[in-house]
Write a structure and sequence with these properties.
Two copies of one chain form a homodimer.
Chain A lengths: L1 H11 L2 E5 L24 E9 L2 E12 L5 E3 L24 E8 L1 H6 L4 E2 L1 H11 L7 E5 L7 H5 L1 E2 L2 E2 L3 E2 L1 H10 L4 E4 L17 H8 L3 E4 L10 E7 L9 E3 L2 E6 L3
Parallel strand pairs in A: 5-7, 6-10, 7-11, 11-12
Antiparallel strand pairs in A: 1-15, 2-3, 4-12, 4-14, 5-13, 8-9, 13-15
Helix pairs in contact in A: 5-6
Bound molecules: manganese (II) ion (2 copies).
The site of one manganese (II) ion has 5 residues of chain B, from strand 4.
InterPro entries (chains A, B): KFase/CYL (IPR007325), KFase_sf (IPR037175)
GO molecular function (chains A, B): arylformamidase activity
Organism (chains A, B): Gemmobacter megaterium
Chain lengths: ~260, ~260
């Protein structure tokens, strides 16, 4: 009955589907690590055939990329704090975690003013005053407008690393431990701020989320099309054997505002 | 309101999430073409680091595979009949097509008895007598039990090609033209029967589906956990630039039967 109602609502437009995914291209920026660490492979999309001698009736490509490429999902095993987590790789995740409510914290003005803007617990508490308590089991999405940037401005690398907005350590500790969120999503290349390696603990989003068996989403777009609360996110990574994450299509179901 | 009801139903188990995806491994069988055509790349999952010198705090892999690998989605541009279809590649598909109702045609007994079992229009009309008209815009899933087979028995190659069940040409013409389905899904490596190259037209599932801008799903599993009707499918391929298809996670929302 509820599923018939959902189908009808999708057909009439009472519920809309919003694509939060960036297009995967060979030049989409990926994370850059210091040279002492092994890098991710580049994105490659290589034609096998396109209605030609190599395949007269069909078109298809070979794909290659690192698990953490484009709009992608971080599973608990991606980080050392989640290495022993049960069902911590993408092939063993509970499917019921792949459909969950989402709230959106609008940090776009602050992020336009400061590349290193940090989302704080205080700002989250201000959000709760306006919208109510962040529900346990929800995705928290940090809207920064960063997805509108292209190329070098998107990665925003300087000599001391990336300068991109993200959460501070106390915000992440509080979201995971005091609010019991399902995961944290960003428009930037990481769930952590570009300078998050200098935080205490280093990379607090990775540290707290994955240490509690929770998830990350990165390189999201179209967050400005979501309400502050009330959307439902469909975020289902590829079922890669013992995978630490994967590119994925992230969709949001959104009640029609009109 | 409908989305809050959905979230509650997922939390209470009144709606369950069933994973219809096979695990992507290096030895999962992919389609084998005659040697005059270019083959798909093999699946490779190659470690970059795992809490070691190459990345002390993190675990990740590089991935490579053809677009039509494992549980995967066929977009219209995959076939010559769909080559000029608007929004025919995975990056341009309408997101509202990625969530849709599904019906399941149980052909498991017939497929156990005959590797080359063909689903006919007559069998579909028998299904309609029991369950009602196949809705326009629905996925039609052919349950064969094939996903329980492993390795060589799954591909089931002989000297004259694969011997696996699938739809006949009139079944596909009727489903696409007379029922207006969204797509057709199978447990086997193709949407077409293993011997479908000898049908008229050749590969009728590909021919009719993609020529009408419709979709295919292959290598599905767990179809025995779905009702004959009433499930809703989430099937959202990767947003690969001009991609002809992709591996994906396919989930079904199912009303609890108990
Ligand atoms: Mn990542
Ligand atoms: Mn295919």
């Amino acid at each position: 009955m509820i599923l018939e109602t959902l189908t009808s609502a999708l057909a009439t437009g009472a519920v809309r589907v919003v694509d939060l995914t960036q297009t995967l291209t060979e030049d989409f920026p990926t994370i850059v690590l210091p040279p002492e660490f092994a890098p991710s492979a580049p994105v490659r999309i290589e034609r096998i055939s396109r209605y030609d001698a190599a395949g007269p009736a069909w078109y298809w490509n070979n794909l290659s990329f690192g698990e953490h490429t484009g709009t992608h999902f971080d599973a608990p095993a991606h980080w050392f704090t989640g290495r022993d987590m049960p069902r911590g790789t993408v092939d063993t995740l509970p499917p019921e975690h792949m459909i969950a409510p989402a709230v959106v914290i609008d940090c776009s003005a602050e992020s336009a003013a400061d590349d290193d803007h940090l989302l704080t617990r205080a700002a989250l508490e201000v959000w709760e005053t306006a919208h109510g308590r962040i529900p346990a089991g929800a995705w928290v999405l940090m809207r920064t407008g960063w997805s509108l940037r292209k190329g070098a401005a998107y990665a925003n690398l300087r000599a001391d690393g990336a300068h991109t907005p993200g959460p501070d350590a106390e915000a992440m500790r509080w979201l995971v431990q005091d609010r019991g969120i399902l995961g944290f999503g960003t428009e930037t290349i990481g769930t952590d701020a570009g300078q998050g390696g200098d935080f205490q603990p280093p990379y607090p989003a990775h540290h707290y989320l994955h240490g509690a068996g929770r998830y990350g989403l990165q390189c999201l777009t179209n967050l400005h099309l979501l309400p502050a609360k009330g959307a439902v996110l469909f975020a289902a990574p590829l079922k890669v054997h013992e995978g630490s994450g994967s590119p994925l299509r992230v969709l949001a179901l959104v009640p029609d505002a009109s």
